[in-house]
Amino acid sequence: MKLYLYILLFLIGAVASIRAQGHAGNRGGRGGFSLANLSASNKEIPDSLLQADSTKLNSKRITGYRLTPILGERYIAPMDTNRLNFGNSILVESNSLAVGYLANVGSPAQTKIFSERQEERDFIFADAYDYYITTPTNAYFYDTKIPYTQVSYTTGGASQSKMDRLKGVLTLNFGKKINIGGEMDYIYSRGYYDSNGNKLLSYRLFGSYITDRYELNAYLSNFNFVNYENGGLTNDMYITRPDELAENQRNVDSKSFPVRFSDTWNRVRGKQYFLTHRYNLGFTKELEETDEEGNPKEVFVPVSSIIHTISYEDNRRRFTSQSNGIDTCYTNIYGIDASLNDQTSTWNLKNTFALALREGFQDWVKFGLTAYVTFEKRRFRLAAQIPGLDYGPNGNINTLPSSLNFPTSEVYDEFTTYIGGELSKRRGSLLTYNVRGELGLAGSDAGELRITGDLQTKFSLFKKDATIKAEGYIKNITPAFYQRHHHGRYHWWNLDLKNVQRIYAGAKIDLESTRTRLSGGVESIQNYVFFNSEGLPEQSGGNIQVISARIKQDLMYRAFGWENEVAYQLSSDKSKLPLPDFSAYSNIYLAFKLAKVLTVQIGANVYYHTAYYAPYYEPATQQFQLQAEENKVKVGNYPLINAYANFHLKQARFFIMAYNLGSKFVSPNYFSLAHYPLDPMVLKMGISVTFNN
């Protein structure tokens, strides 16, 4: 039946293409429409012919774009070229209104705004690095008229706690059709606390080939992340109440604060190969304008597309330690090795085939329609379970003789077939929408369902754009593999978890005339999976609701600027899903020019959220779990204040910042997660240079 659907969709597109060519002629396209030849003139291509991957005409020398999930539609995405707030953009806090992490850039992190959290990967150990991992939906591709290079370097702290980050991208076009490039991100941060350093390296090589008929985007990426783990402070009083400590414990360096363990680290590695390409069927259409020779200009209009997307991922995780006392930090020990050496690996291969009927190839075609099928194969390798031994919650089997003959690992295979479709209208301003549905038809995820959609209208208010958008989804999701299975020295589980049902409805209002953004929504979650205080996955039998509301208001008058954002969220079960009630951000500054060439921004910003029982980061599972009742503490009610000066001179941006000024004059309670403090006051600086001429 699905085969008939694809054939019917393809035939409709082909017939429409032939019919359109019969009316428009069959001349060779000299000025075909693609991202490679976007013009600065809005008159050259009528709005009715603009495609979803190029909703705006761009006259700059370089255009950056990203791809939509699964189908790989291109859309123009803003690049990092802001003259203001450059210093703030390098902070981990800039990724969310409220975020919990382990003080260092590059350390595991989780947003405290529930609506910003993504679905868990099967390889959940990578979830804590969402801000540093490239995926097909956040990867940039480029179209350049000249070679483009951007390099940035940031640093902070003294020699024993120095935090360095070097990022760079280089891309260039070979003619109008081909673009290639590469990017690199290297983080080396020693940290302000014992055994708190990070070393992260990631790189990506990418390319594209864009013509009227054929479009291709591809990349290969690799990352190797090493995080030294300390398990957090054993005594928070070193920060909150140092005056109550013994005299020999006061005024000690932060590197001397006692931590849970040392000489322990997690290494997470991954690589990905991604390619999406399509062949477009269509016709050329003559425009009213003529070229220099007096011939009518022409544009290629795609009618239907044949799409193929393939991706391969390989991920590995190792948790190891040279500390002799780390076993005393955990209740259960399931490994038979003499020391900690947890290892696991996984790979998955995904193929998607789609047929699309394109929007707008004729005036009466007001929407686009796509149908697709996806085949996914996954393999997971875990430590083997020894027959006859008890792997229950009170296991302790490390006394077994090493002469036992048993398999070292076991393999789990999963295979799933999905079918899906998308109905969209992306052109025009009065009404646009997008609805996508996907169903697990057979295999390990049979019955899994995702339906997402949004509806948007745009109108003029005080001569500027105003947008109202409604959005929502219905999901029936299979829990991630490593939520169902994990074999480690300190945690071992094989669980039969039910599917998680999630329903969300929300709306957004964007008023450009008043610089106001409003949003709100409500989400209902059935069978929510969380990590309890023992570090084990647990499934809530009831229903949890999360209500959220958010407002962003910017004020600007001449050189004065004031940016503000406040979010409210309410969890119906804070014992299983703890969230801060209020989170806020405020940034006040003066921005002006010196000698007409140097832009200067001087100001201060503050991050704040109300106190709540924040999660604890557990190194053994790399998950954010509930706190243990006997050592429960609240995190929050502390203003993270940063003072800065940003500068922009031609193609260079640079800054200097005093981070966490509040630690000097506000009650010291600067914890980001339970028992994980932020860095004390530190001076940070950085520079970013763009070469595009």
Structural class: mainly beta
What integer value in Å does the Rg equal? 27 Å
**Number of DSSP helical runs:** 5
User: Which strand-content bin applies to the residues?
Assistant: over 45%
- Give start-end ranges of low-pLDDT stretches: 1-59
**Main sheet makeup:** 22 strands, antiparallel, barrel
Gap between N and C termini: 55 Å
How would you state the average pLDDT, rounded?
87
In terms of quaternary structure, the protein is single chain
Q: How much helicity do the residues have?
A: under 10%
Structural shape: globular
Number of strands: 35
Describe the structure.
The structure is a single chain. A hairpin with a 4-residue loop joins strand 19 (485-487) and strand 20. Helix content is 6%, strand content 50%. 35% of the residues are buried. It has a 22-stranded antiparallel barrel. Strands 2-1-5 form a 3-stranded antiparallel β-sheet, with no helix packed on it. It has 693 residues and is mainly beta. The model is unreliable at 1-59 (pLDDT under 50). It starts with a helix and ends with a strand. The protein has 5 helices and 35 strands. The chain is globular, with a radius of gyration of 27 Å. The protein has helices at 2-24, 86-89, 237-240, 481-484, 662-665, and strands at residues 62-67, 74-76, 99-101, 109-111, 141-144, 148-156, 163-174, 178-189, 198-210, 214-229, 264-290, 296-321, 341-357, 368-383, 409-425, 432-443, 449-461, 464-477, 485-487, 492-494, 500-511, 516-526, 529-531, 537-539, 543-557, 560-571, 582-594, 598-609, 616-618, 623-625, 640-649, 652-659, 671-673, 676-677, 682-691.
